[in-house]
Design a protein that fits this description.
Helicase, Ruva Protein, domain 3; single chain; about 400 residues; two-stranded antiparallel ribbon; globular; 5-stranded antiparallel sheet; alpha+beta
C-alpha cells in the first residue's frame, strides 16, 4: 500500500484521491533520473489545470498513473530549464529547389488521383460544407502524412507531457497536455491509438491537441473525431482548419508568373500587395501566355519569389497565406499549392531553379545579424531566408548599385 502525504489526505477529502494516490506511486526499480520530479510536476501543474478544463478524475487516474518522461525526445532541457530552441547553425541551409523534385511529385500525384476517385463522395461533401477545393485538402494530407501512410510512432500524451516538463516551451506544452487529456476524456480515441510525431502533432493531419479540439471534425458520423483512422474525418478536419483560418472560396492559391527586370524583387511580401490588375499593368504576366481569371484582377495579389531571381516567381493570393497558417514556411505552402495543381496536369514549374551556392544556417544568421545592425528588418536572425530577409537583401543590393536578386550573392 502506498503511503499518503498530508496534502494527499486533504485532496482525498475533497474527492481527488483517485489520481493523486497514483501520482505518488512508488517508482520502479529502473526509474529514470527525472521520474519523481515528473510525478510532482503532473500533480502540481497538470492535474489542477486538467480538472479545471473538465477532465474527469477517472481519466486522470487512468492516463497519468505510471506515466514517465520520454527523455529520448530531441530538444529537451533539464526540468524547468526553458530557454530558446537550440538550433544547429552548422547545418546546411536548404535552398528551395531541393523540395521540388519532379519524381517526388509524380509519385504523390499518382496516389492522390487514386484517392480522389476513391473518396469522391466524401470530397464532394467536404467542398460543399467548407468551400475548400479537394485538391488542396489532398495536398495537405499528402504533405503531412503521405496520405496516412507515414509512421506516427509516439505516445502523444507522453510526448506533450514531457515537453511541458522539460522542453523549451513549457507553458505552450502544458496547454497541449491538458488538451490531450481532454481528447482522451471525451473518448475520441484510446490512449494506445493516440499517436503523434516527436513534436506532439496528432494523426494524419498532424494537429496539435489544442488544434484537434478546435478543428477536428466527425465527418463519418460515428460520434468520434478520429484523425488517425477515418479518412472522412481527416479530410473534413483539414478543410475545417483552412476555412476557419480564412480560406476564400473560389480563389486559387496563386499563379506562376514572369517578373520584368524593372519590378524589384524587394517588393515581395504579404504586406505589399496590390490588385492583380495593377501588377499586370506593370508588366507581370502569367506563364505560357495564360490570362488571369477576370474576377481575380480586382482582388489583391502578392509578389512571391521564394529564391529571389534564382527561381520561379508567383503572384500569390490571400489563400497562399492561409496555407501558411497550417505551416509558416513559404516552401511548405508552395509545395501544397504546386502539388494541388499537379493533380490536374502533372507538369512542373515553367521557371527554373538556378544553382545556388551552398552555405550554412550559421552564415545566413551572421548576415542577418549584420543587416539588422544596419537597420534592416529580416524577420529575425534564424538562419532561414524568409520573405523579409529576401527583400532586405534586394534593398541592400540596390543601395550598392547592383541589380537586386533578393538572394545571397
Amino acid at each position: 500500500m502506498h503511503q499518503t502525504s498530508p496534502r494527499l489526505s486533504r485532496l482525498i477529502a475533497i474527492g481527488a484521491a483517485t489520481f493523486m494516490g497514483l501520482a505518488f506511486a512508488a517508482p520502479h526499480a529502473t526509474a529514470g533520473a527525472y521520474d519523481a520530479q515528473f510525478r510532482k510536476f503532473l500533480e502540481r501543474e497538470i492535474v489542477p489545470a486538467a480538472r479545471a478544463a473538465g477532465v474527469s478524475s477517472g481519466t486522470l487516474s487512468r492516463e497519468l498513473s505510471g506515466l514517465t518522461p520520454d527523455t529520448s525526445l530531441p530538444g529537451l532541457t533539464r526540468p524547468g530549464g526553458g530557454g530558446p530552441p537550440k538550433v544547429n547553425y552548422q547545418a546546411e541551409f536548404r535552398a528551395p529547389a531541393r523540395y521540388f523534385s519532379d519524381n517526388r511529385f509524380t509519385a504523390l500525384v499518382r496516389s492522390g488521383r487514386s484517392l480522389m476517385a476513391r473518396h469522391k463522395g466524401t470530397l464532394d461533401a467536404v467542398e460543399r460544407r467548407f468551400g475548400v477545393p479537394r485538391r488542396i485538402v489532398l495536398a495537405i494530407w499528402a504533405r503531412e502524412s503521405g496520405y496516412g501512410s507515414a509512421s506516427i510512432p509516439k505516445d502523444a500524451l507522453r510526448v506533450v507531457a514531457t515537453r511541458a516538463f522539460m522542453g523549451q516551451r513549457p507553458d505552450f506544452f502544458k496547454k497541449e497536455t491538458v488538451a490531450a487529456l481532454k481528447i482522451l476524456d471525451d473518448g475520441h480515441i484510446s490512449r494506445r491509438e493516440m499517436r503523434s510525431s516527436w513534436g506532439g502533432a496528432l494523426g494524419q493531419p498532424q494537429f496539435l491537441p489544442t488544434s484537434f479540439l478546435k478543428y477536428a471534425v466527425d465527418f463519418d458520423g460515428d460520434g468520434k473525431r478520429d484523425i488517425w483512422r477515418s479518412a472522412p474525418d481527416v479530410l473534413a478536419s483539414i478543410a475545417n482548419y483552412l476555412k476557419d483560418h480564412g480560406w476564400v472560396p473560389g480563389r486559387d492559391w496563386g499563379y506562376e508568373v514572369t517578373v520584368p527586370a524593372d519590378i524589384s524583387c524587394s517588393r515581395e511580401g504579404p504586406d505589399r500587395g496590390q490588385p492583380i490588375a495593377k501588377w499586370v499593368r506593370e508588366g507581370i504576366k502569367r506563364v505560357k501566355g495564360r490570362d488571369f481569371p477576370a474576377f481575380e484582377l480586382k482582388l489583391p495579389g502578392y509578389l512571391l519569389m521564394p529564391a529571389g531571381r534564382f527561381g520561379p516567381a508567383f503572384i500569390a493570393t490571400d489563400n497562399f497565406y492561409v496555407l501558411k497558417e497550417y505551416n509558416e514556411s513559404d516552401v511548405y505552402a508552395l509545395f501544397v499549392g504546386h502539388l494541388a495543381d499537379r493533380y490536374g496536369n502533372d507538369v512542373g514549374f515553367v521557371g527554373n531553379w538556378h544553382p545556388i551556392r551552398t552555405t550554412t544556417r550559421g552564415k545566413v544568421r551572421q548576415l542577418q545579424l549584420s543587416m539588422e545592425k544596419a537597420g534592416h528588418d529580416v524577420g529575425g536572425a534564424d538562419g532561414l531566408i524568409g520573405f523579409k530577409t529576401r527583400r532586405s537583401l534586394g534593398i541592400v543590393q540596390q543601395q550598392r548599385g547592383k541589380a537586386p536578386t533578393c538572394w545571397l550573392d
